[in-house]
Write a structure and sequence with these properties.
By secondary structure, this protein is an all-alpha fold. It has one domain. 76% of the residues lie in helices and 0% in strands. It is built from 12 helices and no strands. The longest helix has 28 residues. It is globular, with a radius of gyration of 19 Å. It starts with 5 loop residues before the first helix and ends in a 7-residue tail after the last helix.
């Protein structure tokens, strides 16, 4: 049997990070209607970590980790998965999945601002345009009265922004942190640690734990998809692309995922897709484009 060409693999990998990651907002929205958010996230990451370690062992990857790497993995796991994802899933109880995805697409803007503060580098004109468009897009998005229906919606929006900030700082931190060199193994440790923290937090907050056998068939399918496709397939595709094509091309997922999420949320869950949302999405994602396509030197 002939192996797929590298070009074919690259195309398949792009489809994975575009469609699969774009659909995780919808999948989490469906799951959180039946399962407590922190419990959901804990089960998802624990299951994914077990599968990752099994795959790593099969491919004979080293699972050794130093104390410093373990500490850094704990910090990154908290920033990315405990707060960045766990709280985000909680916020989806009060915010449409497509709306949440658009808010999450502001991550490159937050990363840029953090780099500006931490590294004290001047922003390039292109980046400044991107920041300005991003702020305008965010304002147009959150100023819609038909979407912001109550105080819990406002709380959900605020918490999503704090999640994006957590993800952004995690991205800046992990770039310089000492973590396991193998990205697959590193991800496994982050997920395993995060699942333990999420589990303790879930129990301390009194969330109700249920057996997967008691979940509806729909939620069972959603969880399998989140674990296998969202947690392992798309992540592997992402790291494969980082080695095969430019970072700027991989970063296009930042403005494709929200489009996929908005369409799926509108089609599957009948979520609101107003004209202002479409305009806001266009402005916001144009801003993200300006930011993610900046040159390597400077910010």
């Amino acid at each position: 049997m002939q192996k797929p060409s590298s070009k074919t693999l690259i195309i398949l990998a792009f489809i994975a990070i575009y469609v699969i990651w774009g659909s995780t907002y919808l999948l989490n929205k469906i799951a959180v209607t039946e399962l407590p958010p922190l419990f959901l996230a804990s089960i998802r990451f624990f299951s994914a970590s077990i599968l990752i370690f099994a795959i790593a062992k099969a491919f004979k990857f080293s699972l050794k980790i130093t104390k410093k790497q373990l500490l850094n993995s704990t910090i990154v796991g908290f920033l990315f998965l405990v707060y960045g994802n766990g709280v985000f899933v909680w916020a989806l109880k009060y915010v449409d999945s497509g709306f949440g995805a658009l808010l999450a697409s502001t991550q490159p803007l937050f990363v840029l601002l953090l780099m500006r503060i931490m590294d004290k580098k001047k922003m390039r004109p292109k980046s400044l345009i991107g920041v300005a468009l991003g702020i305008i897009g965010m304002y147009l998005l959150v100023s819609q009265k038909e979407l912001v229906t109550n105080e819990k919606t406002l709380l959900g929006i605020f918490m999503i922004f704090t999640c994006v900030l957590s993800w952004s700082y995690g991205g800046v931190f992990v770039a310089k942190a000492d973590v396991p060199k193998n990205y697959f193994v590193s991800s496994g440790y982050q997920m395993a640690i995060a699942s333990i923290i999420l589990a303790f937090t879930s129990l301390s907050l009194g969330e109700t734990w249920t057996s997967p056998l008691d979940w509806s068939f729909k939620v069972q399918l959603v969880m399998v998809a989140l674990i296998v496709f969202g947690g392992i397939v798309a992540f592997t595709a992402f790291n494969y692309l980082l080695k095969q094509v430019s970072t700027e091309k991989v970063a296009t997922s930042a403005y494709v995922n929200p489009i996929v999420a908005m369409i799926l949320g509108w089609y599957v869950l009948d979520e609101t897709l107003s004209a202002q949302s479409i305009i806001a999405a266009s402005v916001l994602l144009t801003g993200v484009y300006f930011i993610t396509t900046r040159k390597k030197e400077g910010i």
